[in-house]
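Minutes, project check-in
Item: structure for the 212-residue chain
Input as provided by the requester:
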Amino acid sequence: MAALSLRYRLGAALALAVVAIGVCVHLGMTFLHVAPANTVSKEHGEAIQQWIYPEFEQNWKLFAPNPLQQNISLQVRADVRTADGGVRTTRWYDLSAEDGRAIDGNLLPSHTQQNELRRAWDFFVATHDDENRPVGGRGALSESYLRRIVVMRLDRADAAGEGDVVDRVQVRSRTTNVPPPEWSDEQVSTTPVDRTLPWWPVPGDEARGGIG
């Protein structure tokens, strides 16, 4: 810093100050989100929720008395509008398996590879009933969040191909119970259970992998 001119030192100091303020605001919002209800969180609850959801939602299943005992994989397929005006349906892309391959053997897997897809699905399930109908005000938000993620994943996989555009997407989950250990008398079914969501139209600004 000492070797920089005064103008560049001021610029660097300003940038550091902006980053520090941003970090402090984020930590404060996260603390207010997970803390018990208090005067500040009651008065500014809407602003806190808008900051946290959906990207920064906090989930405490690690401390649950009955940890998750299922393997859940998410798959997606798309209807693609071709350049000649036709429509074709892609194969199912196993997004969870892709993340698993990226993590396997990776000493420093990214947060996105480990959690983005899983947390998006948790968010969707928490805001929808068994008929895939939204429950509460965050249902539409969870749908758009999950849709944006799968559309970006399809774009990375070049599912549409050159000159074609993703028109709509369909997501399904495949849930398989983890078998109990050999010494356990517990009996569980290991037959996979699929949950297939309705087709979702993709807005034009997301059709090529954008975020809307």
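Outcome recorded: The mean pLDDT is 85.
No further action items on this chain.
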